[in-house]
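Sample entry (142 residues):
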Amino acid sequence: MEMQLARLLKKRVEAVTPETRLTVVAQKMIAQRTNALPVCREGKLVGALSVRDLIWRTTSEGRDPTLATVSEVMNQKVVRCFGDDDSREAIRVMRKKRVTQIWVTTRKGEFLGTLSLGDLPPIGAAEKSRGVPDEESLNKTE
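Predicted structure, serialized as tokens:
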């Protein structure tokens, strides 16, 4: 069986709320060295805010970042998996949605963390550890 995503979480980023001012978000992104932050209300994931969202939606719409809040520019459609999903499901979702990072929540929507493609075991690692040959080894001639 593949490892559950909750066990693979390495990086816990600090969430922001929909009411957080954009200047605070920018400072948190710099401090945490991240390109995106989860947006949570009462511990539940309600959206995400990327550097791109922050720059494009703030500047293109002429918002004052000292007054504007996350709720004005956040993305409410987030790509997520659940903590009890396995790594194969995360890879499937990432491929389908064409992303390299996903948000991980409980089934009730409580935010657990984030995973990047690099945090996941390579496809086939579980099979190799169980002695199941991969396609490359099947094609070898001796």
